[in-house]
Amino acid sequence: MHIPDGLMPPLLCGVGYAGTGGLLWWSARQLQRQERDPLGTVPRLALLTAAFFAASAVYIPLPLASVHLLLLGSLGALLGYGAMIAVVVGLFLQAVMFGHGGLTTLGLNGLIMGVPALLAAALFHGVWWRCRGWGRSLLGFILGCGSVLLAVSCFSGVVLLGLPATIDRQRELAAIAVIILSHIPLAILEGVFTAALLNFLARVKPELMKLTPPAGAR
After folding, report:
1. Measured between alpha carbons, how far is residue 46 from residues 52, 63, 79, 97, 188 in Å?
2. Would you call 109 helix, strand, or coil by DSSP?
3. How far apart are the first and last CA of the chain?
4. 160 and 172 in contact (C-beta within 8 Å)?
5. Cα 61 from Cα 131, distance rounded (Å)
6. What is the mean pLDDT of the chain?
7. Reported pTM
8. Predicted confidence band of residue 8 (pLDDT cuts 50, 70, 90)
9. Concatenated DSSP letters for 147-202?
10. Which of 6, 87, 15, 100 minimizes the C-alpha distance to 56?
């Protein structure tokens, strides 16, 4: 699910770069304020960026896009503000090495996937300690499934906004419908994966989740 080069007008590509650049700056500032040792987050950031990049190696090509694991909910939960950095670096590597997306549309693709990852981070860090038992599994599922569905919705909106009027409208809507439907099984799969991953880490390696429990919480 990447927008390739040549599909969007230059103005929209510029807006995408401006938005992604602003979010990258804001995310880096928040990380710097949040972490006592910002450089200490680099290994975890590099590891999860590599996982995001490697997940794109298994994909099914479709018209205008491709379907592969996104891991946006997991990135948001485990990296917090760093998820935006991981997404943009991963997308750049995917564009250069695999041809997923393009360099001119890197900013738009960064917004399409970075915003859901940041929202997943905010939801996870705000709600995790309020949940118990199956509530945490449900939260993990919502993070994984919801982030994919939100990214697909953003992708569809940007494509509808940017495609030239000369393209047949019915074919355009049919192609977007195929993309949305093809991502529903992926959203469910990512929801299950994210719930299992977060529950597993909470039991065996909770320090990787970088959570600060409120007073009285366990």
Report:
1. 10, 31, 10, 17, 26
2. helix
3. 38
4. yes
5. 38
6. 84
7. 0.87
8. confident
9. HHHHHHHHHHHHHHHHS-TTS-HHHHHHHHHHHHHHHHHHHHHHHHHHHHHHHHHH
10. 100
* Eight-class DSSP state of 7: S
Structural contact between residues 29 and 70, judged by C-beta atoms closer than 8 angstroms:
no
CB 45 within 8 A of CB 87: no
- Cβ atoms of 128 and 194 within 8 Å: the answer is no
> CA-to-CA distance for 151 and 69, rounded, in angstroms?
12
Mean pLDDT of 178-204: 88
Closest CA to 195 of 68, 73, 45: 73
Q: Which two tokens stand for residue 141?
A: 């599922």
Read off the pLDDT of residues 74-86 as tens digits, 9 standing for 90 and up: 999 999 999 999 9
Residue 66, SS3?
strand
The residues facing 68 across adjacent strands are: 59
